[in-house]
Amino acid sequence: MAEIHDQFDTILILDFGSQYSHLITRRCREHNVYAELMPCTTQLKDVKFKPKGIILSGSPYSVYDKDSPHADPGIFDLGVPILGICYGLQELAWQMKGKVEKCDHREYGFAQVKISQIGGENASVDALFEGLGDEMQVWMSHGDQLSTPPPDFHVIGYTATAPYAALAHNSKPIYGIQFHPEVTHSPRGKEVIGRFILNICGCQKHWTMEEFIGKEIARIREICGPTGRVIGAVSGGVDSTVAAKLMHEAIGDRFHAIMVDNGVLRLNEAKQVDEMLNKDLGVNLTVVDASDLFLSRLEGVEDPEQKRKIIGNTFINVFEAEAAKIEAAAAEEEKNGAAAKGRVEWLLQGTLYPDVIESISFKGPSATIKTHHNVGGLLKDMKLKLIEPLRELFKDEVRALGRLLAIPAPLVQRHPFPGPGLAIRILGPVTREQVAILQQADNIYIEEIRKAGLYNEIAQAFAVLLPVKAVGVMGDARTYEQVIALRAVQTEDFMTADWYVFPPEILRRISSRITNEVSGINRITYDISSKPPATVEWL
Ligand SMILES: Nc1ncnc2c1ncn2[C@@H]1O[C@H](COP(=O)(O)OP(=O)(O)OP(=O)(O)O)[C@@H](O)[C@H]1O
Ligand SMILES: O=c1[nH]c(=O)c2[nH+]cn([C@@H]3O[C@H](COP(=O)(O)O)[C@@H](O)[C@H]3O)c2[nH]1
Ligand SMILES: NC(=O)CC[C@H](N)C(=O)O
Ligand SMILES: [Mg+2]
What's the catalysed reaction (predicted)? Predict the structure, then answer.
């Protein structure tokens, strides 16, 4: 089976646990070069493709710590270009007999790198820095630095405090830089990464969503064979809609999309998604109303993790039942003389690259903050095999793909909505009444954001229903009712987020509309917490 790294020039990024490792991957992709992250402990014999170049990431470790991670030394004999970033530089120096020591001044923040002129009379700068001028601003984050460079290396850049801020091997394409080119605080960092992957590694700029579509459709057809059928969990969110459209292009009506109404969707969501997919996109979608089942299982439950697990498990039960129904219907038709249909062998999931990165980090998955309903054990003992066409993509790549697949812009730009839905936005027990209150408040909030033309400026906005009551006065009478919290965030990747600063008049209008139109609510608050220390959702 052709894998993506067999089809596109690929940069291998070895992850030593830096908080920026995934950004290196992103920057490569922004240059239209496919890059894949693997744990730094990966042995070369387990890498089944030949990378065009290797990048070693930063790390919280020091190379001389007893338990610090080290790369397979074989990478230096592969003959492909290597770039070490921060710890990556220290690691290659450590492996090649240079010396790394704690520096007197930890350097955390901006620095100016001076680019060295190399050679005699016709001195020039190294290929890594060509075209970048004599000096550039960069971002540093380190407590160790090189005190002696390894033999056979020369300096190509230095700062006031780091004489070995950038090194190159005298004869091989091996480089190390102390600064972080992958963060936006290094304004020309992306160009440095471009110099490395395009000019030094010679990668072709083939990683585009146009190329991806054709290759992925061919791959899906090969996986499913001539008769195999696929069911897919489709929520109306960006990821599953794009995945569904791709499946539909690949295998047509052998793909069965299923949306589950779990009783905790947004106002009119099931109806809207049904219309969007069936009418606008031509994907055959079945909406299964399982709201009674979900709400009865959620009765009286307040604990966030318990809510998430109940919903995750109930999704599984519903999908299994639906797959069985589809097969039973086909068997019945066959009895009546219809041609045999293939088995429902596959389950489509809209898993994205960030979910995968989280689980492949060499430090292992991070502490469980919250159990995302579709990650970590969905349908574990199920006979259906998984098919995940977006597994290698970031969210913005999925959106680009969606646009190419002619998915309408409002759908492509939709804010994410979590599978456990309003159940994790109702802080107390979930009841039909509480769901109805939150649906109305949330609907007004989003409507006003759209009217103000701010929807696309905000990454995600939603209302939360608090389980507390407050005193108010309406029409001269005392009220004692619940409180709505409004949340809106801006973020690139949802790993960190900032709260959004609304113009005050918009908040005023939203507050007045919700308290006037939604009975049961007499007070509105606005959430001014960033992530961290908060998370995007309240539960
Ligand atoms: N109500 C639902 N019915 C069927 N499948 C669902 C439902 N909610 C979530 N899922 C499944 O869970 C997956 C993960 O949900 P997630 O919210 O991360 O993605 P999405 O809904 O496709 O996109 P977005 O992140 O934009 O909301 C979805 O891709 C879909 O396969
Ligand atoms: O499909 C999903 N199933 C879940 O169980 C889930 N929990 C959080 N989210 C979404 O993930 C993003 C980050 O949210 P947190 O900061 O709350 O973890 C935000 O976009 C959240 O809406 C989920 N999505
Ligand atoms: N960001 C990094 O890679 C830091 C590397 C190493 N831990 C240091 O402090 O120098
Ligand atoms: Mg969703």
Answer: XMP + L-glutamine + ATP + H2O = GMP + L-glutamate + AMP + diphosphate + 2 H(+)
